[in-house]
Amino acid sequence: MAHEGDEAPVGLSVAVAAEKLAASEAKRTAAEPWISMAKAFGPPDLSACFDRDVVSVAHLPGWPDGPPCGHGWGGGLDRMLGGLVPGLALVVGANRAGAGKTAFVHQLADGLAMRTAELVTEDSTTPLTPIFMLSELSTELMTRRTLARLTGHPSRRYRSGVAAPRYGISLAQATRVFDKGRVALSEGLTAAAREWFHVLHGGMRQRCGADLVAELRETIAAMTSKLEQNHQRPIWPIVVMDPIQRWQDHTKSEVEALNELSERLRTAVDDEGWILIVTSDTNKTSARGAHVEDIGGHERAAGGMRGSYKLLHIVDIALYLCPEAATTVGPGEPRPVTVHVAKNREGPEGQVPMLWDARTGRFWPKPDGDPEADAMRARLTGGAGL
Q: What whole-number distance in Å separates Cα of residue 255 and Cα of residue 252?
C-alpha cells in the first residue's frame, strides 16, 4: 500500500519506482510493533512445516557392536520428544551431581555430528546439523570421553600410556588402547564428524552473559551462511551449553544472571533458528524437594535445577535424569537410569528407562522384557576395564 510521500521521482522507470515503493513499504512494516497472525504465519508457512523433516534422536551412528540406537537416545524417548527442529530449546538436569548429564548430552552431540558427516556425502536436501559446543570441559577431556564411548575403554586410560603399568595395565595393553584411539581420530566417520563439531576458542571462552549470546549469534550466523553456500542445503545449528551456569555473567547475582542469559538464549533460538540443548547444575538436596514424597515430576525437575524456574520457563522440553545408586548393581555393570520428561510443550510427559555405563559414558535404552538383555549388557560393556 502506497503512502503519502511514496510517489516515485519523475524520470525513474516503472520497475525502479516499484522497487523503491516496495522497499519503503518493507521498511515501514519492519518498524511496526504489531503484525496480524495472518501475516505472521499463514498457509505458506504451514506448507513449509509439512515439507520440513525433523532430526530424530532415536538412531544415530554408533560404536562397534553397540545397540541399534547407536549414539541416539532410542525410539521411546524420540517418540516423546517428536524429533528436533529449529527453534527448539531443551534442558537436561538430574537428581544429583555426577548423574551423567554431560555424558548424556555429549553422546547425542557426537552422534549428530556423525550423522552430518554421513549425510554430507549424499546428494540430498536433508538438513545438516553442525555442533557448536560450549563446555566447561577441556578439548582433551571431551576427546577422551568420545574415545571411551567408541572403544569401550574408560577415558582415564587415555590420560597416559607410559604410566599405565603403575595402575595395573601393561604397556602393551596401553599401546593397544592408544592405537585404537589414534585410528578413531584420524580415519573414518569419527574423524569426519569432528570437522562438524565446533568448540569455543581463544578469547570467546572468556565471554559470558548477554555479550556472549550476541557474539554467538554473529559468529554462528556467519558460519551457517558459509556452510549453506558450500553445501547448498539447509543448515540447522545445534548449540550446546554444558552447563548453562558456566556461561552466566558472574558479576551479577546468580538468579539475575541466569534469568538474563536464559531470556537472551530464548530470543536467539527464536530469531536464529538454533536447536538449543543445555544442561543445568544440580541444587543441593534441601533446595530440590527430595524430602517431599508426593512431589510431581515437573516440580522435582524445577527444584533440581539451579535457577530453574526461569530456565524451565524458556525451554520447550525438560529432561531429568535419575540413576540408581551404584551400590544397586555389580562392579562394571551398567546402571539403570530413569529419564523423566518433566516438561514437554508439544507432547507427553513421562518416563523412559535407560542404562548407563559410567566408565565409558555410554547410554542406551533399557531392553525391558528382552530375553537378550543380559547378552546385550555384556557385549556393550565387554573389555571396558582394559
A: 8
Reference 83, options 302, 316, 265; nearest CA is 316
66 CB-side CA count, 13 A: 29
DSSP E strands: which ranges in 189-237?
197-199
Do the beta carbons of residue 260 and residue 209 sit within 8 Å?
Answer: yes
Which grid coordinates belong to 221? 550466523
Mean pLDDT of each 10-residue bin along the chain, 386 residues long: 48 59 61 86 92 93 91 94 95 89 97 96 90 95 96 93 93 94 93 95 83 96 95 95 92 90 95 96 56 52 63 90 74 86 88 93 79 46 41
Single out the residue of 185, 135, 181, 129 nearest to residue 154, CA to CA: 181
Distance in Å from the first CA to the final CA of the chain: 73
Left (φ > 0), alpha (ψ -120 to 50) or beta: where does 11 sit? left
Sign, Cα dihedral of 241, 111, 62, 83: positive
- Residues 363-384 have pLDDT tens digits of 999 886 444 444 444 444 444 4
Longest alpha-carbon distance in the chain: 89
**Domains of the chain with bracketed CATH:** 59-381 (3.40.50.300)
Q: At 117, which amino acid appears?
A: A
SS3 221: helix
Q: Which cell goes with 141?
A: 577431556
DSSP state string for 123-165: S--PPB--EEEEESS-HHHHHHHHHHHHHSS-GGGGS-STTGG
The closest of 332, 331, 323 to 382, measured between CA atoms, is 332
